[in-house]
Automatic annotation (TrEMBL):
Biased composition (Low complexity): 1-8
Family from the record: Belongs to the ferredoxin--NADP reductase type 1 family.
FAD-binding FR-type domain: residues covered: 14-115
Record CDD domains: FNR1
Protein name: ferredoxin--NADP(+) reductase
Source species: Hyphomonas johnsonii MHS-2
GO BP: any one term: heme catabolic process
Keyword Transcription regulation part of the UniProt annotation: no
Pfam families: FAD_binding_6 (PF00970), NAD_binding_1 (PF00175)
Cofactor (UniProt): FAD
Catalytic activity field: 2 reduced [2Fe-2S]-[ferredoxin] + NADP(+) + H(+) = 2 oxidized [2Fe-2S]-[ferredoxin] + NADPH
UniProt keyword annotations, A-Z: FAD, Flavoprotein, NADP, Nucleotide-binding, Oxidoreductase
Enzyme class per UniProt: oxidoreductase
Any coiled-coil regions, as ranges: none
Length: 269
């Protein structure tokens, strides 16, 4: 009846679910990672992002897009985040402890996915800062190694401490029972710093332009016949690296029209 319908509770099928914080690890005063429970029904493609957030006193949750840093086969969900002292979400999110609740959106999406690229020989993943997050997922996915002979991840940060997450994660892949063997001999991490001395000092754009990146890796310069790229960092970084890809003859792809490189903004800020 109309009366019964009016009193039935309204359930929004798209409302975020409440997940439990399983672990939190702080790397620097600007960076941390956390792991959440993953609902059985939560499906995503490796490299995608989803809305993450916290409830607010006024009842309206505060949500921001976050790349999922764990692979699709993992029982848990991992996220890598910046801490912004006055950031509406990250100022509070940085204080979470195991057992706390975090909101998880229901609709993961994104373009840093293997299906948005045409087949190739060598896959580059160019990242700065928290832009490494989607690549943390992709380097732990067996499909990455089924599709490419070589996987080169670059991570550039202001200083060495900010490289801890990527460096530890890539090192641990050698021991990973699922992808360790597949990644051996294929996966390489190239790190650089811009504000403190480092053997590879400089922005990734400079390292590409001068050719130092390719010389250090012992690979030919970028070639649309063989090379594919994924780019994730600040808006400016994406635009600049994208310009270099186009200058080398690579074409931007999407889910609807796969091509030679794809881009995504590193969200959390
Ligand atoms: P820089 O120190 O020269 O600004 P952030 O922590 O601010 O997000 O920056 C992460 C890294 O991205 C820093 O090493 C920074 O270099 C670098 N970066 C910033 N803008 C660009 C850009 N337009 N192209 C390439 N790298 C950039």
């Amino acid at each position: 009846s109309a009366a019964a319908a009016a009193t039935a509770p309204r359930v929004n099928p798209n409302a975020p679910t409440e997940e439990t914080v399983l672990s939190v690890e702080h790397y620097t005063d600007r960076l941390f990672r956390f792991r959440l429970t993953r609902p059985r029904s939560f499906r995503f493609r490796t490299g995608e992002f989803v809305m993450i957030g916290l409830p607010r006193e006024d009842g309206k949750p505060i949500l921001r897009a976050y790349s999922i840093a764990s692979p699709a086969w993992d029982d848990e969900l991992e996220f890598y985040s910046i801490k912004v002292p006055d950031g509406p979400l990250t100022s509070r999110l940085q204080a979470i402890q195991p057992g706390d609740k975090v909101l998880l959106g229901k609709k993961p999406t994104g373009t840093l996915v293997l299906d948005a690229l045409t087949p190739g020989k060598r896959l580059y993943m160019f990242s700065t800062g928290t832009g490494f997050a989607p690549f943390a997922s992709l380097v732990r996915d067996p499909e990455t190694y089924e599709r490419y002979d070589e996987v080169i991840v670059t991570h550039t940060c202001r200083d060495e401490d900010e490289l801890a997450y990527s460096t530890n994660l890539i090192r641990a892949i050698a021991e990973d029972p699922l992808v360790g063997e597949m990644a051996a001999g294929k996966l390489r991490l190239y790190t650089s710093c811009t504000r403190t001395p480092h053997p590879n000092m400089g922005r990734i754009t400079t390292l590409i332009e001068t050719g130092k990146l390719f010389a250090d890796l012992g690979v030919p310069k970028l070639n649309p016949e063989t090379d594919r790229a994924m780019i994730c960092g600040s808006m400016e970084m994406i635009q600049d690296v994208k310009g270099l890809m186009i200058a080398h003859g690579l074409t931007e792809g999407s889910n609807a029209a796969p091509a030679e490189f794809v881009i995504e903004k590193a969200f959390a800020g």
